[in-house]
């Protein structure tokens, strides 16, 4: 009697407690709450999400270690090991993933600057090695207008020092240093300026106006010049249709005016006037011309292929298990 009681106490050890299905249910509830918190939080990879995934991994590993039924049947063992790998990969993916949105002006190079960034705390930043140049964009529209597709030409220098070119789009990415760059639906106009401060080196850059035609009525932007306390406001005004209603291709407006304002000063620069110098307090601002900019969705996740492989193994192992179960006795028995 005493020996039986000792065996029962041994069976109720710490490891079987970790493998309990009741604990699994509690962890799933905790995981659901963690996902909701992460969804409504600015930081998508919350500590609660990682903790719940880690607890689920421990629970599954304990179940594999304590359940003799799994060890006696190879398909079930493989299925649960693949399931464990999926949970671990999801946790690693949430810690190391990267998502971002960048804007690159036609003829300019990507410099590693992003408009939006969402990344895991363990992401190994290497986006500075993913340089490329935006060589131009062709966006076709059907009547409506309805966007048909984006073709963005990009160029880069490969590992051997050779110049490469490719055409990317919504579903065809440029892959550089494991970062995937997709040309998305956002695009617009960029005002090119040069700035020569009274003291210091000259600078050159772009002012990217809001995406067109999504923000067709608000083609203006305000920014601050280095060393100047007064902000500068600029707007693009035109009457023609860069995105034709009857269909066609996105293009620069044929006739336009650039309005620049700082404080009480205001200038109107016709599009055919060329380079224009504006004397401002603290230096000289030079309008250089009008170009387009292209928006890119950027993604980095090294776990995706491993997740696909683990999921395929889990499905095959489960199919193997049921095949063995149903073929153990004749179908017509």
Automatic annotation (TrEMBL):
Keyword Transmembrane helix annotated: yes
Keywords on record: Membrane, Transmembrane, Transmembrane helix
Transmembrane spans: 21-40, 46-65, 77-97, 304-323
Protein name: Cytochrome c biogenesis protein ResB
Organism of origin: Dechloromonas hankyongensis
């Amino acid at each position: 009697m005493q020996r039986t009681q000792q065996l029962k106490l041994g069976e109720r050890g710490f490891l079987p407690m970790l493998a309990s299905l009741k604990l699994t249910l509690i962890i799933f509830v905790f995981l659901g709450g963690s996902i909701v918190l992460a969804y409504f939080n600015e930081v998508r990879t919350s500590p609660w999400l990682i903790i719940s995934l880690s607890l689920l991994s421990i629970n599954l590993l304990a179940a594999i270690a304590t359940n003799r039924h799994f060890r006696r049947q190879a398909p079930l063992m493989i299925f649960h090991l693949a399931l464990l790998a999926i949970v671990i990969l999801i946790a690693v993916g949430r810690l190391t993933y990267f998502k971002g949105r960048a804007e690159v002006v036609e003829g300019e190079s990507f410099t590693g600057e992003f408009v939006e960034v969402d990344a895991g705390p363990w992401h190994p930043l290497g986006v500075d090695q993913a340089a490329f140049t935006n060589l131009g964009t062709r966006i076709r529209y059907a009547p409506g207008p309805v966007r048909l597709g984006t073709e963005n030409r990009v160029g880069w220098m490969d590992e051997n020092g050779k110049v490469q070119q490719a055409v990317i789009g919504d579903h065809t990415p440029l892959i550089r240093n494991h970062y995937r760059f997709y040309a998305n639906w956002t695009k617009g106009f960029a005002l090119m300026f040069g700035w020569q401060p009274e003291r210091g080196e000259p600078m050159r850059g772009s002012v990217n106006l809001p995406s067109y035609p999504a923000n067709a009525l608000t083609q203006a932007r305000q920014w601050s010049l280095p060393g100047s306390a007064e902000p500068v406001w600029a707007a693009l005004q035109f009457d023609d249709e860069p995105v034709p209603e009857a269909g066609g291709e996105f293009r620069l407006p044929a006739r336009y005016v650039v309005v620049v304002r700082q404080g009480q000063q205001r200038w109107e620069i016709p599009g055919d006037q060329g380079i224009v110098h504006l004397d401002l307090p603290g230096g000289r601002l030079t309008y250089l011309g009008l170009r387009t900019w292209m928006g890119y969705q950027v993604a980095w996740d090294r776990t995706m292929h491993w997740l696909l492989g683990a999921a395929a193994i889990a499905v095959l192992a489960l199919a193997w298990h049921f095949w063995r179960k149903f073929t153990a006795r004749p179908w017509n028995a």
